[in-house]
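Sample entry (88 residues):
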Amino acid sequence: MKNPYNPFNDKTLHTTVNQTQSVTLDERVPFNDVIKHGDIIQGFQAPKRLDQFPKWFQNPKRIFATISLLVFASFMIFIITNYFALGK
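Predicted structure, serialized as tokens:
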């Protein structure tokens, strides 16, 4: 009996292709006309992936926590100043 074709055993099917690093300008190429139009209006190519943003901007949880802490601290200062301004 002849063995049926099994793609998992085919060595030519699973060969990997070496890819070189693309130029950073090619990574920011827009993939549709709307994004291309937005890049033209802005005058520069906007980041298309998360790793193209600055390091401090890549962690949204840290940014949210910092903003929340600043809002809370300013609210507490506002409450304390109103408490002493109105005379206890």
